[in-house]
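Annotators were shown the component list below and the corresponding predicted structure, then asked to write short factual statements about the assembly.
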Amino acid sequence: MASVGIVGGTGYTGVELLRILATHPDVELRAITSRGEGGTPVADLFPSLRGRVNLAFADPSKAELARCDIVFFATPNGVAMQQAKPLVDAGVRVIDLAADFRLADADEWERWYRMPHACPELLGEAVYGLPEVNREAIRNARIIANPGCYPTAVQLGFLPLIEAGIVDTEGLIADAKSGVSGAGRKAETHILFSEAGDNFKAYGVAGHRHLPEIRQGLARAAGRSVGLTFVPHLTPMIRGIHATLYSRINADADIQSLFESRYADEPFVDVLPPGSHPETRSVRGSNTCRIAIHRPGGGSTVVVLSVIDNLVKGAAGQAVQNMNLLLGLPETRGLEQIALLP
Amino acid sequence: MASVGIVGGTGYTGVELLRILATHPDVELRAITSRGEGGTPVADLFPSLRGRVNLAFADPSKAELARCDIVFFATPNGVAMQQAKPLVDAGVRVIDLAADFRLADADEWERWYRMPHACPELLGEAVYGLPEVNREAIRNARIIANPGCYPTAVQLGFLPLIEAGIVDTEGLIADAKSGVSGAGRKAETHILFSEAGDNFKAYGVAGHRHLPEIRQGLARAAGRSVGLTFVPHLTPMIRGIHATLYSRINADADIQSLFESRYADEPFVDVLPPGSHPETRSVRGSNTCRIAIHRPGGGSTVVVLSVIDNLVKGAAGQAVQNMNLLLGLPETRGLEQIALLP
Amino acid sequence: MASVGIVGGTGYTGVELLRILATHPDVELRAITSRGEGGTPVADLFPSLRGRVNLAFADPSKAELARCDIVFFATPNGVAMQQAKPLVDAGVRVIDLAADFRLADADEWERWYRMPHACPELLGEAVYGLPEVNREAIRNARIIANPGCYPTAVQLGFLPLIEAGIVDTEGLIADAKSGVSGAGRKAETHILFSEAGDNFKAYGVAGHRHLPEIRQGLARAAGRSVGLTFVPHLTPMIRGIHATLYSRINADADIQSLFESRYADEPFVDVLPPGSHPETRSVRGSNTCRIAIHRPGGGSTVVVLSVIDNLVKGAAGQAVQNMNLLLGLPETRGLEQIALLP
Amino acid sequence: MASVGIVGGTGYTGVELLRILATHPDVELRAITSRGEGGTPVADLFPSLRGRVNLAFADPSKAELARCDIVFFATPNGVAMQQAKPLVDAGVRVIDLAADFRLADADEWERWYRMPHACPELLGEAVYGLPEVNREAIRNARIIANPGCYPTAVQLGFLPLIEAGIVDTEGLIADAKSGVSGAGRKAETHILFSEAGDNFKAYGVAGHRHLPEIRQGLARAAGRSVGLTFVPHLTPMIRGIHATLYSRINADADIQSLFESRYADEPFVDVLPPGSHPETRSVRGSNTCRIAIHRPGGGSTVVVLSVIDNLVKGAAGQAVQNMNLLLGLPETRGLEQIALLP
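Structure shown to annotators:
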């Protein structure tokens, strides 16, 4: 039974971690911290957890996180990089669900996140926690950068094509749509029900922080830099990401088979039959990524459709998948939830 | 390992039964039938079940339901009463999620459901499957009438008051609000997204089929007939029922304590602290009923707020709870899912 | 051409006033103020008004409101009472869309709104702006208290019964459901899309500020104090209020005719045929209140269903209706919008 | 005062035509037909029109459509082509909101719509009713093919680039998202609230009927055939289309100025300032198309964001705009509605 701590558990990734960990058979939740809610029982803030999580939020200064086997940071960007080092030094294995350790290049990180990086010395060893790419490195990591939600959906959709070297990597397009929970549990006007409901819009077209993260991942697969246009959109649903990916194929290939064999052994990537259109609700609450591939009119444009639940495979579920790898557990342990449909 | 069959699995209660049973450790799903979808893999219709349910829908005439230990009817009203008898005679224990066996009085049933009852001889022994009232009878039943969604939420909210004899049972009011999935997976115009979305309305004020079912249950608790005004409403969400219940108190009582002790041993009824307002999402996907009690201004009107997920505690989850009782399993087995929030 | 000013135009009642006034043929919008957005073009904040409203928000200290014929306060509670007096003294006619002048009793106001009343001397002459009750007084008022959204829907539904003296006024129940825009355009967590979406809950059961306002209005109609239980609920839609009203009838009456004749000459109250269930979307964006009356099972309980758009008949539209009365214009001028359906 | 008839008024384009025409100052609605609803008052089906539209649906065989000045077909595909000829011969000017006269090539039409074209002889003279392209031809047309919703949003977004000859027309990509009302008011399972709500998916990736229509329009502008990948998506909102358009620029140009000057005189196309992200709700209920242009990272990919209300500029509003042109009225007459926000 591994002991687990969560730093910053009042956001959506925090409550989702709690939902998953509370029924995980091999972990014991030892501490969860919150600066603002110290002393409040977790179930007071999230009544869905009444009777299932009996912890109270602890003041960060008092939580004995260094005694945990695993500590998750479900904090805003910029927190983990300040607090992870002593934990890692104490032998705790850290999984950061924010962006602090996702970009290998500290300068690029600072440009996109507009703050100095507090812990560049850990960037080198931090492992990007996409198991479908880095499974072995994850098993032995001391610190894991859990991928962003958009980057998970986009990379899983593009990787087979790029790894096979059959698409033009200069003109990749990722048109992505996210449910509103992707914006977090923050008191901001633009994500109010009356603003985001019955409404659709793009945002961040000039440049979104997930762009360099996706580019980095695709470049690693391609072995060279890639050209990517990434347009995120806000869609009036709570959970879910749908990435619609466009690329030009430049070689003959059975793309359907390519995807099927690439993901044949992946427990959380489901390649749909030809002609399919995955729905975000088919993964609501589950750790699965479902993918379909099209080649409209038999032309040179390949369209990949990739869906995940942004809070599960795009955040907390993938973090638990990484934890399972760290702990030597079966990768699917505690992640067997079936999507809630309808 | 008990073997289980489902008759009519293409509706929402069917897919929800599948979601729950697919991870239930003590049952094996042997057959699921559909008149319209015979031969279609279940996961083709419900991609959320891909990789988790490998059955195909079977033609009803060919499914060997009589060999199952338990058969669920997730069919429209009027089907189970035609097919249950031979199964019961063959020793199968039947749980009907429709209304066929909910009313003890065949004449009343025929008035509300506008068809002759095909199997009145089983009405006498059918047990109304509300475990919080009928737990012992359920254990030994051959046929169980799984309660309706509104009746579950309303009865659990009113029962402590009525059993204690402290409210005027002539003027009960149940103002209930349901998510749209309560109307089923039927191709009807009024439940289209563009009709039911961003919209709120009452319906069936002149008389809804759940009215006699609720009245019967409350009358049994009261020991006499009761006067109930029941107004259902359609609310633009997918899952969830919120019942707001009004009654006049006619005796001194600590109502909060009354509810807490009435439900102290109930695994699926959660009485919230004084001053609470339960949210439907706090039970989304879980088998829990959460209840709060108010007495505004300290007056004689008691307001009870009761929420359930109409597809879980209001349908498939309660059916599995009943199945657990029938099979002598722990009542919570396979029903540990935590609500999906947000 | 009357000149009009708006104080505080950055909330939902403000933008709705702008939508209506921008196409009103008899008024000229002279100024709109905002403390936080001084200098910002209105259409930058609300792109729906691009090309239709060319004003910029003005700093409150600089706006020449005293030169307007009419000034609307679309401000939070507590602002109009501080600023209305000099305007009224200067001959401006003031319509407050907040609660400052709604309760005749300053003590009761202070208990519910938890601040001292800054201008009790105007309370006596302020006219409660429900035209269906106070039409003549409104025409000559210097200051109008525009009714709350819930109070509009609830009073219009109860008034014919109470005026006719045929219901027990001790046990009135108003179970009301509001769209989320009723909570305003405030950066608060509980009204985020991911919190309020796909969710239903009651709130303020212990006591909501609209309770004394409704009680006051019903008491005036009854000629004595009334007993009212008022339970508001938050429903996942943007606009709309649905009030479900319960009362016990104590005399013989043709209730349908009673309502029809009470509202026969009202341009904005539509009594539906017997057996109807009004939908909130049938009034979305329009100034209409639609009402249906039921007497389930022919019993003594009368159920009234009353729907409005909380931002129109429940706020900005009713304010313009009051303005038309003040200006001697036809009451429907500028309020002919047909509801947006679907 | 022109007299107007509507064939097939029970769908969403029909009720939207009624909403707009009921307040149009220069037309009199003479007849509206429905095969299924003959005799039913329009306001019984659509309570939003109570007191505003007093017509009943007429049996198609009895309606004196030939006496109208204008007849709109708000029917399914395949109806107008069977009934338009005698009306046109009688001097009625016909506006078809369906697809029957949108494609100039009858063979292509038959391939995509899978039925023989009943009236190819009118295809030659039918004018494609996109006023921003065909204004003069529309004025003198006898029969107008009102554009589809996706085609309106996509063409208005691409046209300035293509007309200027500055983009590669071989690799155009249109990633489009529609509200559910675009699927019509049909009793079909996949557009139920519980299916389409809280869900996002692509559909028709292999080929959607709007693809040839868009290709035809863009090819006319380009003077040669174009290569277009068109991926439509269903998004959980009622109204609105958001088209995200990708193209490669192959010449130097100030794209913002290009769009601004192209649409400078267009009353219903609003080019937003640089850096903007139009929201669908900013045009909800209005006849406006709002467009923003981006060039992420200063690269060669141009991203155009284009939003319309699919039922207004994408259907009924554009039809009325065409009617105004036919009647020699100001183009904006009766179309001054401001978007409903929130």
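Statements collected:
1. Residues 2-125 of chain D form a domain with the Rossmann fold fold (CATH 3.40.50.720).
2. Chain D is about 30% helix and 20% strand.
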